Amino acid sequence: MRRGFWLRYLGRRLLAAVLALFGVAVIVFVVTRLLGDPVELILGQRATPEQAAQLRAELGYDDPLPQQFVRYIGDLVQGDLGVSNYTQRPVTDEIADRFPATLELALAGMLLGLLWTIPLGVIAAQRPGGWVDRVSRAVAEFGLAIPNFFFGLLLILLFAYALGWAPAPVGELDIGASPPPRVTGMVVVDALLAGDLPTFWSALKYLALPAITLAVTSCPPILALTRTSMITALRSDYVRSARAFGLPPRTVRWYALKNSLVPVLTMSAMTFGFLVGNTVLVESVFSWPGMGLYSVQSMQRFDYAPVLGVVLLGSAIYILVYLLADLISMAIDPRVREGQT
Amino acid sequence: MSAAQTQSRSVLAGIADDPLLEISGLVVETGPARRPIELLRSIELAIPKGARVGVVGESGSGKSMTASAILGVLPNGVRARAGTIRFDGRDLMTLPEREMRRIRGGEISLVSQNAVASLNPLMTVGAQIAKVCREHTGVSKQEAWTRTVELLDALGIPEPDVRARSYPHHFSGGMAQRVAIAMALICSPQLVIADEPTTGLDATIQAQVLEVIDGSVKASGAALLLISHDLAVIRAMCDIVAVVYAGSLLEYGPADEVLNRPLSPYTQGLIRCMDPPEGEIAFIPGRIPEPGTLGAGCPFAERCDRATDACRAQQPALRQLRPDHWVSCHHE
Ligand SMILES: Nc1ncnc2c1ncn2[C@@H]1O[C@H](COP(=O)(O)OP(=O)(O)O)[C@@H](O)[C@H]1O
Ligand SMILES: [Mg+2]
User: Fold this and answer.
1) What are the residues facing B26 on neighbouring strands?
2) Do B112 and A237 touch (CB under 8 A)?
3) A44-63: per-residue pLDDT in tens?
4) Which of A27, A162, A169, A243 is deepest in the core (most CB within 10 A)?
C-alpha cells in the first residue's frame, strides 16, 4: 500500500503542478500581449510604419493570438522559452546564466532564516514573556518593519565600510577574480566542488550580507508561528501526559517540537516564495548577478519571452517548495497523510 | 478527639498501619509569591496498599491539581508551598527529579480524562505504550512490543496487534481510554491515578471502561486513586471515599460509612443530589468559591444552611469522629 500511495500522490501533485503552470503561462501570455507593443519599443518612435509591419510579421506578432499561444506552448514543452527581443539570445541561456546566483542567495537566506527563527521560537516558547521571548520578538518586529533594501544598506555601511568585516557589495566574488569551474552555477557550491577553499571563503563572505538581509527581513513570521505552535504543544494534554509517564525532558520536547512542525513547514514554504520576491531588491543593493535586474529590465522593455520565462520559473519553484513542505508534513503527521487518500 | 491526635504529623494516620501514599498539609499556590492564590489549602489523603480510594468534589475543587502534585507535574506557574507527600517510604516533594521520573509511569501512573488528547497524535499507540515500558524497565524493543500487544489484548481491544499500529485519532473514546489504561498498567505500578476516566463517555461505554479499570487493578494488585465528580462512579468502585471542596479535605472514611452516614453537610448535599427524594431535583445552592476568595473560615460555610459565625471565623480541624472516619466540620 505504502509505495503505491506515495507514487499515486506524487503523480497527482505533479499533474496539478503542470496544470497550474499552464494556467500561469496563459495568464502571463495574455497580460503581456495586452500591455503594449514591443515593436515600437524595439525600433523607436521614428521607424516607418513599413519597417514596423515588417518586424511584426518577422516576430510572428501578426498571427492571431491563439496561434501565437499554441506556438509558444509548443516551444515551451520542448524546453524552448523563446528569444529575447532585446539581446537576441535564447531566454533559456540567459536564465541559466543568472538563475543559479539567485537560487544560491535565496537558499542561503532561507537556511539562515530557518536557523535563527525556529530555535529562537522554540526557546521563547519555553518561557513566554521571558527575556528570550521579548528580545526575539523585538528582533522579529524590527525585521518585519524595516524595508529589506534599507536593511541591506545598513549592513553594508556597518560591516563593509565601517568595520571592514565584509567585502564591498560588488557581487559574488572579488572584481577580476576568476570564478570556479561552473558546475551548478552557484559560486559557493562550485568552489567547494572544485576544492578551492580560498574562493569558497571569499564567496561566502560576499554571500553573507545579502543572505542575512533576506533572513532577517523575510523570516520573522516563521519565528512567530514556531513560538505559538510550540506554546500550544507544550500546554497540550499529550505533553503533560508524556511528562506524567516519566519520559525524559528531551523526549517530551521532541514530541512538542514535532507536533508544532507541520504548520511551521507550510509557513516556511510561503515565506520562501516571499523571500524569492524580496531578492529582486536585495540583489540590486548588493550588485548580485541574479535574476532581479534581468526581470525588471525585461519588463520595462516589453520583452515578452524573458518575462514569461521568469514568471514560469518562479511559479515552478514555488510549487516545488510547497510540494516539498507537504511531503515532509505528510511524513510527519498521519492525519495529513490520511487527508490525502 | 484529643488535640494530640489532630496535630499528629499525618492527620489521617491510623487508617492503615503503613499507607502506600500519605499526603498531609499539602498547600499548592499560584500567582506572585507576595500575594499567592491558594489552589489547594489543606489536602490530606491516605491510600492504603492495594486500596481503592475515591476522591469526589465539584469541578474546580482541586482534584486534578492534587493528582498533578502527587506526580510532581504541576502546571507552569503553580507550586507546592507546604506539606508532605509520602509514597512507599519516600517524600515525593523533596525527591530529586531523576528519581521522581522513575516513579512517574513506573510506580505511580495516570489515566486522564481525555484519552485521545493525552496520546501523542504523531505516534502509533503501541509505540507510545512500548516507549513508556522501555523507559522504566529497559527491556528490548521486541519485548516491550510483545508486552504492549498482550496488555491491549487483556484489556479487551480486538485485533490488538493491528490496533497497536494505529494512531490515536483512529480510536473511539472508550477504546482510547483502554489504550490509556494500558499505558498506565504496562509497568505494573503500585498506584494508578484515574482522573475522571469516564467523564464524557456514553453511559454504556462508561460502565465498560470502569469494568476494565476494576478488573485490571484487581489483577495487578495496584492501589487506585479514582477521581470523579460523580458520586455514583465512586460508590461503584471504591472502598474509601475522600470528599474535597475548594482545595480542602472535608471528609474521609470507608465508603459505606461516608456514603451511608455522611458527617459533613457538603457530603450530605452531594448524596442528596445523587439520590434525590421522589419527584425532586436536588442541588446545592450557590457555587464553589474562586481560588483566592476564601477567608479563614470553613470553605463551605457560604453555601451551608447550618453555617454559624464560628464556621465563618475558623476552618474546622479534621477530626476522627468514628472509627476510620474523619470530618472537618464544627457541627459534629
Ligand atoms: N494552570 C493553572 N494555573 C492556575 N490555576 C489553575 C491552573 N489549573 C487549574 N487551576 C485552578 O485550580 C483549581 C483546581 O483545579 P482542578 O484541580 O483542575 O479542579 P478539579 O480537577 O477538581 O475540577 C481551579 O480553581 C482551577 O481554576
Ligand atoms: Mg479535574
Assistant:
1) B43
2) yes
3) 777 788 888 887 787 777 78
4) A243
Let me know: does B184 contact B192? Beta carbons within 8 Å.
Answer: yes
Taking only the tens place, the pLDDT of each residue in A68-98 is 888 888 888 888 888 888 888 999 999 999 9
**Ligand 1: which atom is nearest the Cα of residue B62?**
17
Q: Which fold has domain A92-327?
A: MetI-like fold (1.10.3720)
What does chain A come to in residues? 341
Interface of A with B (CB under 8 A): 236-238, 240-248, 251, 255, 258-259, 332-335
Domain of residue B317 covers 3-107+187-328
Q: Which CATH number belongs to the domain containing residue B317 in this structure? A: 3.40.50.300
Local structure of residue B317 (DSSP, 8 states): P
ipTM over 0.85: yes
For chain B, counts of helices (H) and of strands (E): 12, 12
Domain count within chain B: 1
User: A96 CA distance to ligand 1 centroid (A)?
Assistant: 63
Number of the ligand closest to the Cα of B56: 1
- Residue whose C-alpha is closest to residue B272's, from B217, B201, B262: B262
- Do B118 and A237 make contact, defined as CB atoms within 8 angstroms? yes
Of ligand 1's listed atoms, the one at least distance from the Cα of B196 is: 21
B112 Cα–ligand 2 center, Å: 9
| Integer Cα distance of B27 and B9 in angstroms | 15
With an 8 Å Cβ cutoff, is B189 touching chain A? no
pTM: 0.85
Q: DSSP characters for A120-185?
A: HHHHHHHSTTSHHHHHHHHHHHHHHHS-HHHHHHHHIIIIIIIS--S--SSSSS-TTPPPPPPSSS
Model confidence at B246: pLDDT above 50: yes
CA B307 – CA B294 distance, rounded (Å): 15
Residue among A238, A247, A332 whose CB faces B118 most closely:
A238
- Regarding beta strands B191-195 and B108-111, do their DSSP bridges make them parallel or antiparallel, or are they unpaired? parallel
Find the closest chain A residue to B100 by CA distance. A246
CB contact under 8 Å between A246 and B105, yes or no, is: yes
Q: How far is CA B330 from CA A35, A70, B259, B263, B305, in A?
A: 91, 95, 20, 11, 13
The least confident of A108-112, A209-213, B297-301 is B297-301
Nearest CA to ligand 1 atom 9: B65
In a domain, B48, yes or no: yes
- Ligand 1 and B78: CB distance under 6 A: yes
**CB within 8 Å: A247 and B135:** yes
Residues of chain A with CATH 1.10.3720.10: 92-327
Residue B115 inside a domain? The answer is no
The distance from CA B150 to its chain's CA centroid, rounded to whole angstroms, is 27
Question: Helix, strand or coil for residue B56?
Answer: strand
Residue A282 cell numbers, joined: 536585495
The whole-angstrom separation of Cα A279 and Cα B94 is 57
Contact B121 A332 (CB under 8 A): no
Over residues A126-144, the pLDDT tens digits come to 999 999 999 999 999 999 9
pLDDT at B241 over 90: yes
